[in-house]
Amino acid sequence: MKGQSLATELQGRIKGRVLPEEPLARHTTFRIGGPAEFLALPADRTDLEICLTFARQKGLPLYVMGNGSNLLVRDEGVRGLVIKMAGLGRVEVRDRTVWAEGGAPLPLVLAEARRARLTGLEFAAGIPASVGGAVVMNAGTPEGSIGRLVEKVEVLDRDGKALTLGGDELDFKYRESKLKGAGLVVVAAALSLNAGDEKEIVEAIARNLALRRRKQPLNWPNAGSIFKNPPGHYAGWLIEQVGAKGWRQGDAEVSSVHANFIVNRGRATASDVLHLVARIQQAVADKFGIFLETEIEVWGEGP
Fold it and tell me: Which of 3.30.465.10, 3.40.50.11690, 3.40.50.1100, 3.40.1260.20 is the CATH number of 91-214?
């Protein structure tokens, strides 16, 4: 009942919604995950600041999610407050800079850049992340990554203090940045793009979308690439070499389209996915002496 009463109290303070015991499977692209003790969907920055203050005052564990596209939530769920940033989704074009709030979906940001005839973000076509999540993990493809475009970010710390950080302060690396694990919430990011030819931009977006549709299992719920590429190797190739394509645990399956994807074929659980993750790691370590590090974020307590 504590969660219910806290949810009611927070709901009285913000414009957005607060949902007690909300199944996070409804909010992740994997369609997997137990309940959040309560989930807040702030409607704007003021709501977000109130939520951060509330979590601090009540001593609550705090989780922040964007589109849930790189996330596996364990079956028992998470205690505390989960903030989903979807309500902070404004995008503006300012000369050759695209300013976007942390909850803005990358496809929307790319669409605004295309309309303004700005180039540089085409590599992101089809990536289902939010701006905040993409910046934190330096989302990208072999064609590029978002970190090289970041001019600055506006963040809030867990005390609600606002900071502006330049892109050169964030130490972007492969699927990493200084924001990861820093306890900072990305409120907005400014991406520096270049003037381009509209026809070429549209064609590049179409090519990248077609490539993703051909090489990734987009017909089943998934969380994107499960493992980082180790130096000098592609994780998908290593996984394929140990014969893992098609391995199945419950309704979780190593994709036959791309071995670095695990798909949910209906009622997969987090335990099913983690079983496959461990099996793949062991098989690749045994054959190649390489430990595959996970790219997805895992929430919740458990083995």
Answer: 3.30.465.10
